[in-house]
């Protein structure tokens, strides 16, 4: 009888843990879907960021493209990708040599607010504590 209780207790803990994990994964998928829908125009920034002066476009294949002040795409000869982990957005710009990739080519940003038409980020690296505000333009 004790073995049965132990198995039931262990099984319920595993079920609870797997449900909790799935909920977190679903939130990341929702965040990615919102980011990938439309173009994001930079409307306010505490500091100047060379990598996204006017705005960004996130694609479904995890690439990031710059947009100009009119909302058009800016062609780039190098790849820029993004990864999303919980509330942290990492954008890596591969125009830099591997030795300088983290120092100059990596932006680590905390997602402070994300709605269908507004995105507020706080920079962690390379410029800590800088706030960036974006609005969706389509």
Element layout with pairings:
Elements: H1 2-36, E1 39-45, E2 55-58, E3 64-67, E4 73-74, E5 80-85, E6 88-93, H2 101-105, E7 106-114, E8 118-125, E9 131-136
Antiparallel strand pairs: 1-2, 1-9, 2-3, 3-4, 5-6, 6-7, 7-8, 8-9
Please explain how this structure is put together.
With 138 residues, this protein is an alpha+beta fold. It has 2 helices and 9 strands. The protein has helices at residues 2-36, 101-105, and strands spanning 39-45, 55-58, 64-67, 73-74, 80-85, 88-93, 106-114, 118-125, 131-136. A hairpin with a 5-residue loop joins strand 3 (64-67) and strand 4. The radius of gyration is 19 Å and the shape is globular.
User: What distance lies between the first and last C-alpha atoms, to the nearest angstrom?
Assistant: 62 Å
Structural shape: globular
For the residues shown, what is the average pLDDT? 85
Strand line-up in the sheet with most strands: 4-3-2-1-9-8-7-6-5
Order of helices and strands: HEEEEEEHEEE
Separate helix tally? 2
Rg from C-alpha positions? 19 Å
Number of DSSP E strands: 9
Uncertain spans: 17-24
Helix content: 25-40%
Structural class: alpha+beta
Main beta sheet: 9 strands, antiparallel
Strand content: 35-45%
Short note summarizing the structure:
This protein is of the alpha+beta class. 29% of the residues lie in helices and 38% in strands. The protein contains 2 helices and 9 strands.
List keywords for this structure.
138 residues; alpha+beta; nine-stranded antiparallel beta sheet; 29% helix
């Amino acid at each position: 009888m004790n073995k049965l209780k132990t198995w039931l207790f262990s099984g319920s803990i595993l079920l609870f843990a797997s449900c909790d994990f799935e909920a977190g994964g679903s939130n990341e998928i929702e965040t990615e879907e919102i980011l990938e829908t439309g173009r994001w125009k930079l409307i306010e920034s505490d500091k100047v960021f060379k990598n996204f002066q006017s705005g960004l476009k996130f694609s479904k294949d995890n690439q990031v493209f710059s947009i100009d002040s009119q909302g058009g795409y800016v062609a780039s000869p190098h790849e820029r990708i993004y990864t999303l982990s919980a509330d942290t957005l990492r954008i890596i710009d591969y125009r830099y040599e591997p030795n300088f990739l983290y120092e100059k080519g990596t932006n680590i940003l905390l997602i402070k607010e994300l709605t269908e038409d507004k995105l507020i980020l706080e920079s962690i690296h390379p410029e800590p504590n800088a706030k960036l505000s974006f609005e969706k333009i389509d």
